[in-house]
Amino acid sequence: MSPATTVEPCDFVVFGGTGDLAVRKLLPALYLRDRDGQLPAETRVIGASRAGLDTDGYRDKVRGELARFVSGDQLDSDTCERFLNRLEYVTVDVADPANWTGLQDCLADREGAIRVFYLACAPGLFGPICENLALNGLADAQSRVVLEKPIGHDLASARAVNDAVGAVFEESQIFRIDHYLGKESVQNLLVTRFANTFLEPLWNSSSIDHVQINVAESLGVGSRGGYYESAGALRDMLQNHLLQMLCLVAMEPPTYVDRETVRDEKLKVLQALKPMSPQDVERCTVAGQYGPGLADGKAVPGYQDDVENPDSTTETFIAVKAEIQNWRWAGVPFYLRTGKRMDRRCSEIVVQFKPVPHPMFPGSEGHSEPNRLVIQLQPHEGMRLHMTAKEPGPGGIRLKPVSLDLNYIETFKRPSPDAYERLLMDVVRGNPTLFMRRDEVEAAWEWVEQILVGWEKSERGPRRYPAGTNGPTDATILIERDGRAWHEGVTA
């Protein structure tokens, strides 16, 4: 790999270094960047938690986890040993300011080096961790801090978290991560829109009928039940992932792609979202909760059994009809949908264009389908442009829907890197383009909180849907009321 792609030496300090996010995503991502030669020899990865391990014990644990979360063809003994030798472990009790000497000693001989403090822990610990970093002299001008979502659980708590972190770090040092923004297909949406001239004249209410953003998961809450009970689908997915993708679809072209220009345009979209009145919440949102059903042909329990709370009203599904009040998008609905224990695993953005104004081919009435641009995020990253073509053969013109397909692996002959691989390297580079700024987070919460308040005032709880289906019937009614239908994509 070219030396130009190598990042500067740094220390990655992962608070929650033995937790699920660290072992499942962060450490495998850093291992793969090491495998591709992007980490200099001086780079270290320091796990910090209350687990009571030592460095040898931590390395043994990570060795086993890499075997679980890195594919076999990407694991090689030389890289594995090199990466494991980068690892160190310190015990830190966030609640005890006197318990930070181990981390102080670990970083003492690295004055001036870039320090990345990754807070892979509960949002309630973000403020105390940053305060202790400052009290112990560990945060300096070269430091960056990475915050996992959700940032708070409502607007007031989000502001409190931002204030606490902002009291220690400058805004330019704070990286609020949304891993969906690191996906190649999401980034390629910007390139598709702004590096190709044929789409921009059509990218508005004159040509686009509606937009759908779907994130369906076939799994239940699993081991995240405790977290999910306090979050739900709205806080876990809508406030961040879905609204960020909406922003990239709807934003105006920036003057150029720069650290702040993209985030400036995303903020304008969030500020232009039509406010949700109580009547809008009742009519334009659907909350659901999965019950017992079938997954992969096997019986699975409902959410209440998964979290061992028979009275839980936490939503595992949400569908929302949103509108953007500006000239480009006036009258174009954005349908957002996400849920757990759905009938498929699929994340996609669907931009559906308006039908042809006049069916000019004899017998074609009702036989042509609208043009659609489908951006697939998972299970396979790619893009499909659905068109209408003539079916070959004599005897008149017969119309047939066809698609122009872009499969990233087939086209570029290599798998796309995991989103965390890209984003972690951007943190070291100090490039915040694909991260959320404080005003973005708070603007998103301001809009989402209107839904939360509406739900609290309503006596209607989440609609039940059987596991292994595509959500509650009310969600189908939500979109069919407008004469439209949910796009059901590729299964996995």
TrEMBL record:
Pathway the protein takes part in: Carbohydrate degradation; pentose phosphate pathway; D-ribulose 5-phosphate from D-glucose 6-phosphate (oxidative stage): step 1/3
Pfam families associated with the record: G6PD_C, G6PD_N
Superkingdom, natural source: Bacteria
Annotated catalysed reactions: D-glucose 6-phosphate + NADP(+) = 6-phospho-D-glucono-1,5-lactone + NADPH + H(+)
Protein family per UniProt: Belongs to the glucose-6-phosphate dehydrogenase family.
Keywords per UniProt: Carbohydrate metabolism, Glucose metabolism, NADP, Oxidoreductase
Oxidoreductase listed as a keyword: yes
Residue positions of the active site: 241
One function term, GO molecular function aspect: NADP binding
Higher taxonomy: Bacteria, Bacillati, Actinomycetota, Actinomycetes, Mycobacteriales
Record keyword Iron present: no
Primary enzyme class: oxidoreductase
Biological processes per GO annotation: glucose metabolic process; pentose-phosphate shunt, oxidative branch
Domain Glucose-6-phosphate dehydrogenase C-terminal, chain residue ranges per copy: 190-487
Residues that coordinate or bind NADP(+): 50, 93-94, 149
Gene3D superfamilies: Dihydrodipicolinate Reductase, domain 2 (3.30.360.10), NAD(P)-binding Rossmann-like Domain (3.40.50.720)
Binding-site list for substrate: 179, 183, 217, 236, 340
Enzyme Commission number(s) from the entry: 1.1.1.49
Residues spanning the membrane: none
Protein name per Swiss-Prot or TrEMBL: Glucose-6-phosphate 1-dehydrogenase
Protein task: Catalyzes the oxidation of glucose 6-phosphate to 6-phosphogluconolactone.
Domain Glucose-6-phosphate dehydrogenase NAD-binding: residue ranges: 13-188
GO CC aspect terms: cytosol
